[in-house]
Design goal:
By secondary structure, the chain is α/β, with parallel strands linked by helices. It has 10 helices and 8 strands. The structure holds D-xylitol-5-phosphate and zinc ion (ZN).
C-alpha cells in the first residue's frame, strides 16, 4: 500500500481542522504543510502556528515543506512548533548538508526537495545525510498546477542512485498527484504520494485518500529493496541527539 501525505494547501482554509481530521480517519499517513516566503516562490502560505494547532487535533507526523530561501532562518520556529519532518528545497540553501545535519541533530527527520527542472544526480552526495527525498512534479508555489511527466524518470534515477549507494530513503512525489499518476509513480518506485487538490478538492476526502492508499507497486520488480531509513519519525529517537538532549539552540 502506498503511503499518503495530504497537503493542506489544497484545503478549504475555513475547514482545515475538519478536513485534516477526515483525512486522518481515512488512513492518511502524514500531514504535509507547505511554508512559503513570497521570495523563493511568490506565494505565501502557513506559519508555525498551523503546525502547533494541527498537532492538537491530529496524531499524524507533521511534515513541513520549506519553499523559502535561507531555511536556517526558519528552522527553529518550526522545531519549537513541533514539526516532525522538515524538507527544504536544495536550490534554496547554500549549504544543504549543513542544514540537513542541523535538522537531524535537533532530533527531526531531514528531507531534501528537488524541483522539476533540477537533476537528481546531487542526491548521490546527499543521501548519507537525508531521511527522505521529495521530488517535485510541479514548480513550488501553488497547488493544482500541471504535472510534469519527467518525474517518472526521475523516480527511477533516484531509485538507481539509492541501489548504487545502498542507502534507501523514502521517495515522496509532490504536485499534481492523483490516482492514475499515483499508480504509475508507485510502480516507478515512489514510497509516499503527496496530494493536495486531488484529496481536498474531491467530493469525498475519505474516498480520495483510500484510492491513493490502495495503490500497489506493479509486480515488475522495479522496487523490492527495503528502506534503510524509515518513512516515519521514531519518537523514541526524537529526544536524543549527540548532546543527549532535544534542544538544538
Ligand atoms: C506546491 C506544494 C505542494 C502542493 C501540492 O508548492 O509543495 O505540496 O500543495 O498540491 P497539488 O496536489 O494540488 O498539486
Ligand atoms: Zn509541498
Amino acid at each position: 500500500m502506498a503511503n499518503v501525505s495530504v497537503s493542506i494547501l489544497g484545503c478549504d482554509f475555513t475547514k482545515i481542522g475538519e478536513q485534516v481530521s477526515e483525512a486522518e480517519a481515512a488512513g492518511a499517513d502524514i500531514i504535509h504543510i507547505d511554508v512559503m516566503d513570497g521570495v523563493y516562490v511568490e506565494n505565501l502560505s502557513f506559519g508555525p502556528q498551523m503546525v502547533r494547532d494541527l498537532k492538537k487535533i491530529c496524531r499524524l507526523p507533521m511534515s513541513v515543506h520549506f519553499e523559502l530561501v535561507r531555511p536556517e532562518t526558519y528552522f527553529k520556529m518550526f522545531y519549537d512548533a513541533g514539526a516532525d519532518y522538515i524538507t527544504f528545497q536544495m536550490d534554496a540553501c547554500w549549504n544543504p548538508l549543513h542544514m540537513l545535519n542541523v535538522i537531524k541533530k535537533a532530533g527531526l527527520k531531514a528531507g531534501l526537495g528537488i524541483g522539476p527542472a533540477y537533476s537528481v544526480e546531487p542526491l548521490r552526495y546527499a543521501l548519507p545525510h537525508i531521511d527522505g527525498l521529495i521530488l517535485m512534479s510541479v514548480e513550488p508555489g501553488y497547488g493544482g498546477q500541471a504535472f510534469e511527466d519527467t518525474v517518472y524518470d526521475k523516480v527511477r534515477r533516484a531509485r538507481k542512485i539509492m541501489d548504487e549507494t545502498g542507502i534507501h530513503v523514502p521517495i515522496s512525489i509532490d504536485g499534481g498527484v492523483n490516482e492514475e499518476r499515483g499508480r504509475r509513480l508507485v510502480s516507478a518506485g515512489a514510497d509516499i504520494l503527496i496530494a493536495g487538490s486531488y484529496v481536498f478538492g474531491a467530493d469525498s476526502i475519505t474516498g480520495a485518500v483510500q484510492a491513493l492508499k490502495g495503490l500497489k507497486r506493479a509486480p515488475d520488480g522495479i522496487w523490492e529493496k527495503p528502506l534503510t531509513k524509515s518513512v516515519f519519525v521514531d519518537y523514541n529517537d526524537m529526544v536524543k541527539n549527540d548532546d543527549g538532549d532535544s534542544k538544538m539552540f
